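Help wanted!
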Amino acid sequence: MNVKQIAKLSGVSAPTVSRVLNNHPDVREATRQRVLAVMQQTNYQPNAAARSLAAGQTRVVGLMVRKETDTIFNEADFSRLLLGISSACNPHDRSVMLWLVEPEYEQRMLQKITAGGLVDGVIVSTMRFTDPLIDALQASQIPFIQIGRHAGGVQASYVDIENLNGAREAVMHLLRLGRRRIATITGPLNLISSRDRRDGYLAALTERKTPIQAALIIEGDYSENGGYRAMQLLLPHQPDAVFVANDRMAMGALRFLIETGRRVPEDVALIGFDDLSFAAQTMPSLTTVRQPMMQAGALAAEMLMELIENPASPPKRIVLPTELVIRHSCGFRTR
Amino acid sequence: MNVKQIAKLSGVSAPTVSRVLNNHPDVREATRQRVLAVMQQTNYQPNAAARSLAAGQTRVVGLMVRKETDTIFNEADFSRLLLGISSACNPHDRSVMLWLVEPEYEQRMLQKITAGGLVDGVIVSTMRFTDPLIDALQASQIPFIQIGRHAGGVQASYVDIENLNGAREAVMHLLRLGRRRIATITGPLNLISSRDRRDGYLAALTERKTPIQAALIIEGDYSENGGYRAMQLLLPHQPDAVFVANDRMAMGALRFLIETGRRVPEDVALIGFDDLSFAAQTMPSLTTVRQPMMQAGALAAEMLMELIENPASPPKRIVLPTELVIRHSCGFRTR
DNA sequence: CTGAAAGCGCTTACAG
DNA sequence: CTGAAAGCGCTTACAG
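Answered by r_m:
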């Protein structure tokens, strides 16, 4: 089944079939119905490759995700991002193509993408502040949207999460609860989200005129064991609260505190970041900052589709708010 | 840049460029080098749509995942499956297209896929024992591989996980530890994995000639609250151990037990299924069954690529072993 | 080993 | 509102 056959069966020409297929307004209603009926009967669907080639549009959206190390790659966030993108694309009849970027195949992927005929645009997610992937996309002229901000991308659109403010609010909450020696375990500081969260910590302290102490700031690696070790280093400096830049490290910190007989939150209060599924299940349950990754994915997809339709549209930057999920580890109090 | 231009620059014809592109052996080495050099200089990459149309091959692999309800959709497994598929496809220079199947768009997706020009084959993951998706794929003649077994798929290849045996071993472990009143909280029994895990439970009891009691078998819904409620119903029947068909429900069961003052594992031992990241972090840590989803994804992708190359090859069924991860909730003992 | 011709299945001006 | 012609950028026989 192809346009020619549909055309013959409907008693029209191929271009008319094409017009019906593409909802072109300039088709007489009777003709449209006739063609539609034949397409229905024959269960006809146009060939995607031919369509892409002729129209110069694939109706496919690409997603490039740099896998990073296992400790940084967060399965829940990844799933939610994907869910958001996919559910935004479905109603628009667009498909999504997924590339997990491994350095080994990075170049080839980029070439395939920029060669055309595969996708109309790309959503790119990488946690590195500076990433050659972004530069390559920038240079390639292909429409793209970043998840998170990145260095050098003056012209680029992005959807970011309010990492700074989310962290700031978490620390403010600890301050309001009367904590005074608040420490932080940061993520790897080559990641922009890690920096933002640390800066939020600093902002809260500064805002409340609380002294900042270098000894209370430790760089972690986003792993459970990293949190454990960081807490070990922190404890001699007697913090009464710790803002931990992700839930996984918070689990490790909690483990160390419990093993060494500290009470949480009485002796040391704890706030994490991510709201992974286990955060509600720890003992005590973990107060944490939730990021709207699904919404971020959906928005990025919408923005990309808009950019594809209208490549000249100016760059957009959206920063989504986080939500402080108050549980027990922070020294429970309903605000 | 297109084949014609590359041809002109290299002093050959378009078909020769095409042969070089496709590693056709019948090209003189000197010619090949000349063309390759020009392609390199011009940074040429062939257009994917044109290639797909002309060759009748897209070099794209599809993945259809039915989202099911939120409680059933397991983000960790989904991520791992995707990781496995993606890393298997990368070396073969294939891309992967992802569809999250929502009932609303199911028909259109299937039509697009079977119309051709989009993907060469499909990996399909759905937990329903009977799923129209499978039937439609079956009828469509498109090469496909199932994740998990399904009803009616006589000719279909699949990669499955040893749900039955994984459950069986978990229950055997409890029996070896001296438990005698072992209960189970199953998943929704319209899911094949749920049935398999229940059957594994039954198999172990039968094997050890332990009486099976209907009151000790409760159907859950894979949610945390479902586990909580199921445990509530189970407790009056005084089980001394519970095999729970997923970790999320196990968390709920654990919560109920602790809230009602039971000691785990002393009073009631617990084993889950999935090895979600929080399983190691509960108090007590959760003994559970780990499924090799990433490996399943990689294998499915390999099988699909083989099937695409050789559509006549006979169906293959692979069942991957699970691993019992022994922690504290089962009444710790190193085997 | 290489090229001229045809074709893959659509869409896009253009003319009427 | 509709159709004939050309074209999108490749690959596939076929002939030499």
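OP: Thanks! One thing I noticed: The radius of gyration of chain A is 25 Å.
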